[in-house]
Amino acid sequence: MGKSINVSLIGNPNTGKTSLFNRLTGLNQKVGNYPGITVEKKEGICKLDRSLKAHILDLPGTYSLNTSSLDESVVVETLLNKNSKDYPDVAVVVSDIENLKRNLLLFTQIKDLEIPTILVINMADRMQRKAISLDIELMEQELNTRVVLVSARKNIGVDDLKKAISEYKNLKSVPCVNASTIDPEYFETLRKAYPKQSIYKLWLVITQDVNFGKIDRNRDLEDLKSSSFAVKSESDLKKMQHKETVVRYQFINSLLTKVLNVDKSQAKDLRTRLDRVLLHKVWGYLIFFVILLLIFQAIYDWSTYPMDWIDTFFAKASSWAQTSLPEGPFTDLISEGIIPGLGGIVIFIPQIAFLFLFIAILEESGYMSRVVFLMDHIMKKFGLSGKSVVPLVSGTACAIPAVMATRNIEDWKERLITILVVPFTTCSARLPVYLIIIALVIPEQEVWWIFNMQGLTLMLLYMLGFGAAIFSAWVLNKILPIKRKAFFVMEMPAYKLPMLKNVGITVLEKTKSFVLGAGKIIMAISVILWLLASHGIGEQFTNAEEIVKEQYASQNLSEEELTNKIASQQLEHSFIGYIGKGIEPAVRPLGYDWKIGIAIVSSFAAREVFVGTLATIYSVGSDEEETIKNRMRAEVNPILGGPLFNFASGISLLLFYAFAMQCMSTLAIVKRETNSWKWPAIQFTAMTVIAYFAALAAYQILK
Amino acid sequence: MSDTIAHLKRGEQATIVSFNEEQVPLKLLEMGCLPGNVVMMMESAPFQDPIYLNINGTYLAIRRETAQQIIVKRHG
């Protein structure tokens, strides 16, 4: 085995850093989290030559080393902590030819940390079209570094980069900007106190917390913060950082006048023309709306085909296991617990893959920033920003991919709020429940000529979900005691054709992280729910078959009817049946009986289970909607008499399903994305309480 | 009253004169929003918020309240 070195890829967002990472590592990469936080950690292996391997870390995109977000602080932490196992032997700073000036700011900062640094200039294939010329040799001299021109998109120069990395020992680690000129006296005392440290490193440690809240991590310079050097007030430090930025730009400007030549007369780009249309006050919104419809259609409609196949496949696998394996509790566990549990995970894959396919394309093409731009003003009023729009809209298909889509939101508070409110939006699993209850309690009547009462009710429910999400975002923004950066600065990247490789890898990674992350929890809860529904104690459960046979002995039932009656008897006396009866006093004020209680409890696995559970309880035996509907219509309220499903209890149920957090898969993914059980627990409790009281009020007023 | 970025019309260029250091985030400076640099108004969303600019070659969007803090001199 050869030697392995650590390489960190660092760069501004939108420089094609991830494309380059994908070029270097291919599928030889893994995505995880930094310990204790939810920032994505991407690492991979690249073989440089026969004896040397590079362990490549793709650090989150950042504009500078002055941290203002969790992502950026990860970059700084990695570069400051020499003891960390990720500390780079070489830092590769990725810049793009069109934004060289701004990209170099970060480069000068990293160079000043005295880490061996290579400057990569990406998108070099655009140089000719943009009439840009660059004196690489002079640039290498002035910056004291290696400069490599690449095009990750066209796969040009990647081998040169590998070669440059493998020659990392020749890199000079000398600073290029003397930051101490901003306050020579202060820096001189600092240097005397810590003669062994790089001066810029000391400065970074001191200023790290100015723009961003403190994060506790082991650091060899922890004493510095409490020392006399931190006496400068926060606003003084801020002013010095401003000065530092000015000094760095002076250096960069004088460098670029020497090495860079742009013929502006030739630079007429696509951007202006496209933005005229895509950001137009009317067309812009219309186009966005059409794109949303398309995404919605894909998640909602196109994915039903693969979902049906998955459904059929797992149903077949389950019955195969039941018939082919020896009879016994273990076979039941496999065929009724584990296989459906697995199915419950795999069934979401098409929706997740579709959503991330679209998101990756929008992101890669540069359009996503335009969406944020268009929607920011409206969302700002509710404490969110334009970045929350896509998750909230995706939530109407399924909350799981929607929660995962919040990763694009940098601000933690905003992201958390979005995650917490997304499950209010009407997801597709609520639809079967809505449809059957609406059909039962809302008259099929035309209003204002063209509208149908039932259709209107459904639309109102969608609006209710969205309204609840927006309103709770507003409330959460007021009450959550999390500091947020109060400003909004967003780069508007150039339009690009999405790269198939990047899109593919994103879809693959997101799907994988769902299956491995949330999948385990979904699996566990499915098995528990199955255990509760299929086991019970007492004669009523164990002798269900004889009891039913005896009871209906005179009625001459068919084989199928008998099986259904037995299943119903067993469910009634299973643990879940007892739970249903146990909660009956709690749900009676909402207008439900214990049977609906059971359906609600089992709905916590997934809402759509509601219909199936009622089918089992009413021993209908099939999921045929008409049959269940007729059976439900005939059900009588045990206390008040009259139909159980009337207008009052129907509205109450609709409201309950609109607000309640009845989806363990979503809870599992929220746990994964927030890295704690605290937030899913709060979300579950709050939503269930809201649902309960909304349903209670509705029933009590309407009955 | 001097002009701020928020006063610019679409396509109009100006030179950044000064800004309130407390109100303007460091991030904006890092993106090249420094006195002496040229800014051009690209587009604005309805209600002039947010505003889409080209500052010193970088394309970015900022909210109206930030744009109002940055004093500029219009190019005649």
Largest interface (CB within 8 Å) is between: A-B, 40 and 28 residues
Q: State the separation between the terminal residues of chain A, measured CA to CA.
A: 77 Å
Shape of chain A: elongated
Question: What structural class results from the helix and strand content of chain B?
Answer: mainly beta
CATH superfamily of the domain at 3-264 in chain A: P-loop containing nucleotide triphosphate hydrolases
CATH class annotation of chain B: Mainly Beta
Stated plainly, the CATH topology of the domain at 3-264 in chain A is called Rossmann fold
Order of helices and strands of chain B: EHEEEHE
Number of discrete domains of chain B: 1
Largest sheet of chain A: 7 strands, mixed
Continuous helix count of chain A: 32
Rounded mean pLDDT of chain A is: 84
Instruction: Report the sheet with the most strands of chain B, covering strand number, pairing sense and barrel closure.
Output: 5 strands, antiparallel
Full CATH superfamily name of chain B: Ferrous iron transport protein A (FeoA)
Main location (chain A): membrane
Transmembrane segments (chain A): 282-300, 338-362, 416-442, 448-476, 514-533, 596-618, 639-660, 680-702
Function (chain A): Probable transporter of a GTP-driven Fe(2+) uptake system.
Keywords (chain A): Cell membrane, GTP-binding, Ion transport, Iron, Iron transport, Magnesium, Membrane, Metal-binding, Nucleotide-binding, Transmembrane, Transmembrane helix, Transport
